[in-house]
Amino acid sequence: MPTWLLIALLALLAVVVAFALGGAIVVLRRWREDQRTLQRDVARANAALAAAHAEDNGWDAAALDAAARRAFAAERPGVEPRSIDLVQVIDRPGIEEDRAVLRVRTEHGPATLTLTRRAGDWALESLS
Questions:
Q1: pTM above threshold 0.90
Q2: Across all residues in the chain, what is the average pLDDT?
């Protein structure tokens, strides 16, 4: 086999490998972005569903948010929440066993805040 043909085949092989690697990198980046988008969309849908469920049960969103902020501030003084999102509504018969699970995001990371209803008002059950 002539040397020029061998060089041409190796160059062609290098181009094919480069295109394959480039394509794989593009596909991987798109897949990762799709995963992030999907996770963000699912989180938004869950929050909207929890809020709708709470509203359907007559829960006052402003009162729940205020109670969550008070409870968080009492447990973690000086730490400001970036966002507080309702993620789960536990609505048992009556109002004394109602629970709300909220995701609190801070500069230190996320925390899960659970509030329970006591004497008609929301009180801290747990913060983790």
A1: no
A2: 88
